[in-house]
Specification:
The structure holds two protein chains of two kinds. Chain A is of the alpha+beta class. Chain A has one domain. In chain A, the strands form two sheets. A two-stranded antiparallel ribbon of chain A has the order 1-2. A two-stranded antiparallel ribbon of chain A has the order 3-4. In chain A, helix 1 runs antiparallel to helix 2. Chain A is elongated, with a radius of gyration of 22 Å. In chain A, about 30% of the residues are buried. Chain B is mainly alpha-helical. Chain B has one domain. Helix content of chain B is about 60%, strand content about 5%. Chain B has three helices and two strands; from the N terminus they run H-E-H-E-H. In chain B, strands 1-2 form a two-stranded antiparallel ribbon. In chain B, helix 1 packs antiparallel against helix 2 and helix 1 packs antiparallel against helix 3. Classes of the chains: A alpha+beta, B mainly alpha. Chains A and B meet through helix 1, strand 1, strand 2 and helix 2 of A and helix 1 and helix 3 of B.
């Protein structure tokens, strides 16, 4: 039954989008961090989405969900600020902050939350259609 | 007589299966709106229904509905990551398809009721 599969497809998308939202949250939380767990400045992270074939046989290509393939670190150099009094300043008096761009992250957050809502609505529609299908022949 | 009674039921049953299949396809497109390189797919409902109903004479059950030929949806706007899901269009198609599914459901219900009425005896009221 195809309608049942919609829950798997939309569910995979919802969980992928929530992971993206999670990554955005940790990026925003670390926007002003000087050092990450490895002693280096925090690097912004981005999720990479990948199509997930969920069907079998002839349905294989018609039934596509999403999964998070990897979480990639942004390799660009961090923001450097001249502040000789800062405890984390290097020999030249510069402090390296994380390379998180808060504007980009906010946009990313809005996009993720919109996609999340879209998929929740897909699930609601599929649910109401399934409930009506269950009532065939009644009334 | 009985085949004639169930003919319209079978037709609407096939249409319902195809509607459900299309709904699932559109859900996949919406789910992959942010996947890099994903190509949105759709199928021509009228052609798929014609295929499914013309092959129905061979006595296949409802479960054996033919899988419709998928094709790439045309991109309204290009995207840097080669993803061509047009969210507005997908949402519109999804809502439209849901309404069509419900109307097919009503057709199924009413043809079931017609068949039941035809089978009722006069005395039972």
């Amino acid at each position: 039954m195809s309608l049942n599969q919609i829950f798997n497809v939309a569910g995979s998308a919802v969980s992928a989008q929530s992971q993206r939202l999670n990554v955005v949250a940790s990026n925003l939380a670390n926007a002003d961090t000087v050092a990450g767990p490895d002693g280096q400045a925090y690097k912004a992270r981005q999720v990479v989405f990948q199509t997930l074939l969920m069907g079998q046989g002839a349905q294989r290509n018609a039934n596509v969900g999403v999964q998070v393939a990897t979480v990639r670190e942004d390799p660009t150099a961090g923001r450097r600020v001249h502040d000789p009094k800062h405890p984390a300043a290097d020999g030249d008096g510069y402090v390296t902050y994380s390379n998180v761009n808060p504007v980009e992250e906010m946009v990313n957050m809005i996009s993720a939350s919109r996609s999340y809502q879209n998929n929740v609505e897909v699930m609601n529609t599929a649910r109401s259609l399934l409930l009506k299908t269950l009532q065939i022949g009644q009334s | 007589m009985v085949p004639r009674l169930t003919d319209s039921l079978e037709f609407h049953g096939r249409a319902l299966m195809l509607r459900a299949q299309r709904q699932q396809l559109l859900a996949g497109n919406i789910a992959n709106a942010d996947t890099p390189g994903y190509r949105a797919r759709d199928f021509d409902f009228a052609a798929a229904l014609r295929d499914a109903t013309s092959a129905s004479g061979s006595g296949r059950g409802l479960g054996g509905a033919a899988t419709p030929r998928l094709r790439d949806a045309l991109a309204a706007q290009t995207n840097l990551d080669r993803n061509n899901v047009d969210m507005d269009r997908e949402r519109a198609s999804f809502a439209h398809n849901a309404v069509q599914y419900e109307s097919t459901l009503r057709f199924v219900n009413s043809s079931i009721r017609t068949a039941l009425d035809a089978m009722k005896s006069h005395t039972s009221g």
